[in-house]
Amino acid sequence: MWLTGWLAGKSTGQGQLADFVMGTWLNPRLFGGRLDLKMFFEVRVSWILLFLLTLSCAVKNGLTGGMFVILTAHFLYANSCVKGEECIPTTWDIFKEKWGWMLIYWNLCGVPFVYCFSSWFILKNPQYTLQPWQTGALLGVLFCAYYVFDTANAQKSHFRNPNLPARKGAFPQFKYGRLDHPKVLKTHCGTDLLIDGWYKYARKIHYAADWTMAGVWALSCAT
């Protein structure tokens, strides 16, 4: 990608190292624009590969309490990326960040092979197990955090683009993911800021839910 950008005369203006690491192409595409490389590797490769790695650990280890929690968590995250794919083009990664070594490396190596550390730890340390009540408590926190994560991100994306279609057959679909006539705050620069739905409680509530789910991933190790 760096070489094609260099040959095309694209540059970040910060030197060749910055061009290589941060990238010079925003949305490189193949096959006449039908395959967006950034979307494909961010969604269809990284998160699905993470789930498959965790699933392989579950097949090898058996469904202990911790393994069931992490398998459920990784399924929910991978599924949310696929079933809510129409929301992804409005995210920072797609519309702002260039497709360079940083994103390529993290999507192909970081997400699947780092985020599966909990799965690998549970596989290699069967002496650490969750009690049934601990498993139930973690699943309860996970489902609540996931609901906030899913619906908050959907509210944000549909606010940015109200014409986004819902994917038919996608599961689960939450009605709270779309707000009818949401309240907005007019900013000094003239843009609208969403202050309705989940965003009347916190500006970055989707990150809070994301961090909570990450905490569940860690606690599934039961050390």
TrEMBL record:
So where does this one cross the membrane? 45-78, 99-121, 133-149
Q: Which residues form the signal peptide?
A: none
A GO BP annotation: ergosterol biosynthetic process
Q: Which GO terms describe its molecular function?
A: Delta24(24-1) sterol reductase activity
Primary location class = membrane
Q: Superkingdom, according to UniProt?
A: Eukaryota
GO CC annotation, single:
endoplasmic reticulum membrane
What are the protein's UniProt keywords?
Answer: Lipid biosynthesis, Lipid metabolism, Membrane, NADP, Oxidoreductase, Steroid biosynthesis, Steroid metabolism, Sterol biosynthesis, Sterol metabolism, Transmembrane, Transmembrane helix
Q: Which InterPro entries match?
A: ERG24_DHCR-like
- Protein's membrane topology: Multi-pass membrane protein
Q: Which Gene3D superfamilies match?
A: 1.20.120.1630
Keyword Transmembrane helix part of the UniProt annotation: yes
Indicate where this protein resides in the cell: Membrane
Q: Which family does it belong to?
A: Belongs to the ERG4/ERG24 family.
Q: What is this protein called?
A: C-24(28) sterol reductase
UniProt gene name:
ERG4_2
